[in-house]
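Weekly modeling sync, notes
Attendees: S.R. (lead), two postdocs, one rotation student

Agenda item 3: backlog of single-chain predictions. S.R. asked that every request posted to the team notebook include the full sequence so nobody has to chase files. The rotation student volunteered to paste the first one in as an example of the format we agreed on. Action items at the bottom.

Example entry:
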Amino acid sequence: MPDATETLVSIFRDTVAAMPDRAGLLIPHCDAPSWTRTWAEIARDARRLAVALSSKIGIRPGDRVVQVSENRYEWILVDVAVHLVRGVHVAIHPALSGPQIAWQIRDCDARCVFLSDAEQAAKLAADNLALPIALHSVSFDRAADAQSRCVPLAKLMDDESDESAIADELEAAALTETKPDDLATILYTSGTTGEPKGVMLSHRNLVTNARGMLAAYPNQADELRLSFLPFSHIYARTCDLYTWIIGGTQLALAESREKILANCQSLHPTLLNGVPYFFDKVRRHFESLPKDSASSLSELLGGRLRLCSSGGAALPVATADFYWRHGVRLVQGYGLTESSPVISVARPDTDRMGSVGRPIPGIEVRIADDGEIQTRGPQVMLGYWRRPTETAAVIRDGWLHTGDLGRLDDAGYLWITGRKKELIVTASGKNIAPVAIESLLADEPLIAQVVVFGEGRNYLSALIVPNPDALRTEIIARRIAVFSPAEALAHPDVHAIYRQRIDERLACLSANEQIGRFALLDRALSAERGELTPTLKLRRAVIQEHFADTIDRLYAG
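Predicted structure, as returned to the notebook:
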C-alpha cells in the first residue's frame, strides 16, 4: 500500500539517500561515451538551483514556474528544484509557437520561465506578446544574449558561497510543509476541441500513478529506461521520470528522435515507453531492411528489451501482433492528462490483443449508460486551472468523465471503442465513432494517416495519406505506369487498390460505417500546420478547414 504522506520531494530524497553513488542518469552520445550523473550529483545540482530560485528570483510556495524545453538534464533539475521551493511546475510543449507559449504563461501567471535555447528564447522576444512585466527568463543556453532578455542558467547558479545550509533549510521545509494534495504541476491540454485548459495535478496524483505503473511493471535490478517522449507530456513524465525516481534505477535520455535506434544499439535498454507512431515506424524500418542486416527485431532495439509500452493513442492491432510475433512484448495502456495519466495497462503475461488492460491498483472504472468511460481514484486531477465550470462538467461525485467510449469485458479488461465528442451523426441519424474506423484503416500498410468525416452527410468519407514506401512497392509489383508521385495519386489503378484495401479492412463493420468515397493526399498531416496536437492527435476541425475543397468534392454529384 503506498505511503499516504508521499510527495515528489520525499520520494526523491529517499532515493538519493538509499543510493547516492549509483549512476542514475545517462546522456548518450553515439560517437562518445555516455555522460552520467549519480543520484548525489543530481541532488546537489537541483539543490543549488533551488537556492537560486528562492534567493535570486524570489520564488515562493505556490508560485508558477514555466519550463519550455526538450528533454535534457536541466529539465529534470528544474522539476526537482521547483518542488524543493514548493512552487508549481508548468511544463509547456517546446513545439508550440511564441504566441501559444505566451498565452499559457499569462494564463498561469508565471513568475519565471526556463527556456532551453536561443530558438525558444527568440519565440518570446517579440514585444507584442504581453508577457508579465515581472517575469524572469532563464535560458539553458550560455549564448543567450540581451535581446532575448534571458539570464543564462550558468550565471544564475554561479554563486561560489556555501549554499548547503540554505538548501538544507529549503528541503526541510519542503519535506515538512508539502502535502500530498498540494498542487505540483499544471499541464495544458492539447486543445483538440477548443482553448487549452490547465490540468492541475497534485503530488498524490503523480506519485500514486507512478507507483501504480511500477506495480504493473515491477523494476528489475538492471533496469534501464531509454526515454525519448517529451517530459512536457504527462505520459513520459509519470511513466519515465517519476517511475525512475521512485525505483532508483537508470534513465537514459535519447539524443534525438533520429538517433533512438542508435541509442538502443549502444545502451541496450530494458524498457521503452512510446507512442503508436514510433512503434509502427520501427516496424516499417525493420521490414525494409535487407534480410541479412538484422537478425531480429529485438536486436534492432538493443537485444535486452523485456517490455515496450505504448500510450497516447490507439495501438493498431497489426503493429502489436507484429512485435509479439517477432519476440518483443509490446503492450498498451490508456489514460489522459486529467488522470495523471494512467488508468489501465495491459500486462505482458495476460495481454489481450487490442485491449488496454485492467485498471492499475487503486483505480476504479465504470461504463456509463451511453458508453462513456468514467474513472475514480487518487489519479483524478484537482481540476482545471481557474476554470470551475469546466471542472464541474467533467468531475461529478468524484468520477472523472473521460469523454472516451469503451466497454469492460467479463474479465475486467477495458476496450476503447471511440471518442464521445468525436461521434459523427450522419444525415440518417446514425451515431458513428470515427476513431474505431480510423484504427482499422491504420492497420493497412498502404495507409500512413487517415481521417474520417461524415457529419450531417449521407455517407462517410476519408482523407488518406499514403505510405510512400509501401505504395511504391505495390506500384512496382503491379507494373503500374506512373512517372511521379502526383501521377500515382491520380491513377485509377492506385485508387482501385485503395478501394479494395479499405473495403477489406472494414468488412467487419456495418453498412453505415463503410467509407463511401476517399481522397489520397499529397502531403502528411502535421503539428506544424496545426492539424495534429503535440501528442499527434487529430485536430479534426483544422483538418476539415484545410481540406474543405477536397472534402466537398467527395460529396459532390
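Discussion: group reviewed the output briefly. The radius of gyration is 24 Å.
Action items: rotation student to repeat for the remaining queue; S.R. to check formatting next week.
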